[in-house]
């Protein structure tokens, strides 16, 4: 798959839903692991933001705004994007390894320790505050939208 000036190979489908389809992929130039999200443009709201000559799909615009300024480790980076006539594509950073927080918690044999829960909450709060400072109110913070390194120790 070619997106702008980069070529990607799709590894597998990660998820699918009303939000679109997300694929695990690899950028061929440097081997970087990425997520490619393909979303239908039907019923998509477009907005204008500073620095872009044309209105963008809301999700693309919010990703651009959330990524402005110094890099914040807790926020997934938008690496590239493209808008087509009937869909748009986002190329996103894909941490390896990663797992949705809800699956991580379900797989724990015991309740996670308070210090681990505190770290997770601090990181989620920091990311949400950074988004707000950058003009983005997330509106969908939930366990499925929080990614965690499954190698994190819970004991």
UniProtKB/TrEMBL annotation:
EC no. given is 2.7.11.1
- Pfam families linked: Pkinase (PF00069)
Reaction equation(s) it catalyzes: L-seryl-[protein] + ATP = O-phospho-L-seryl-[protein] + ADP + H(+); L-threonyl-[protein] + ATP = O-phospho-L-threonyl-[protein] + ADP + H(+)
Q: Name one GO molecular function term.
A: protein serine/threonine kinase activity
GO BP, one example?
negative regulation of apoptotic process
PROSITE patterns, alphabetically? PROTEIN_KINASE_DOM, PROTEIN_KINASE_ST
Please verify whether the record's keywords include Transmembrane.
no
Q: Which InterPro entries match?
A: Kinase-like_dom_sf, PIM_Ser/Thr_kinase, Prot_kinase_dom, Ser/Thr_kinase_AS
- What is one GO cellular-component annotation here? cytoplasm
Regions annotated as coiled coil:
none
Which UniProt keyword terms apply here? ATP-binding, Kinase, Nucleotide-binding, Serine/threonine-protein kinase, Transferase
Where does the Protein kinase domain lie? 8-155
Q: Extract the SUPFAM superfamilies matched here.
A: Protein kinase-like (PK-like) (SSF56112)
Family affiliation: Belongs to the protein kinase superfamily. CAMK Ser/Thr protein kinase family. PIM subfamily.
What protein name is recorded for this chain? non-specific serine/threonine protein kinase
Which organism is this protein's natural source?
Cyprinus carpio carpio
């Amino acid at each position: 798959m070619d997106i702008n000036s980069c070529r990607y190979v799709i590894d597998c489908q990660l998820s699918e839903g009303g939000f679109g389809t997300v694929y695990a992929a690899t950028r061929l130039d440097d081997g970087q692991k990425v997520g490619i999200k393909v979303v239908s443009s039907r019923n998509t709201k477009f907005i204008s933001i500073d620095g872009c000559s044309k209105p963008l799909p809301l999700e693309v615009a919010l990703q651009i705004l959330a990524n402005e300024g110094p890099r914040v480790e807790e926020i997934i980076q938008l690496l590239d994007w493209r808008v087509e006539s009937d869909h748009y594509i986002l190329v996103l950073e894909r941490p390896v390894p990663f797992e949705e927080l809800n699956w991580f918690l379900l797989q724990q044999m015991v309740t996670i320790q308070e210090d681990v829960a505190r770290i997770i909450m601090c990181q989620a709060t920091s990311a949400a505050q950074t988004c707000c400072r950058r003009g983005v109110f997330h509106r969908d913070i939930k366990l499925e939208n929080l990614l965690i390194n499954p190698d994190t120790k819970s004991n």
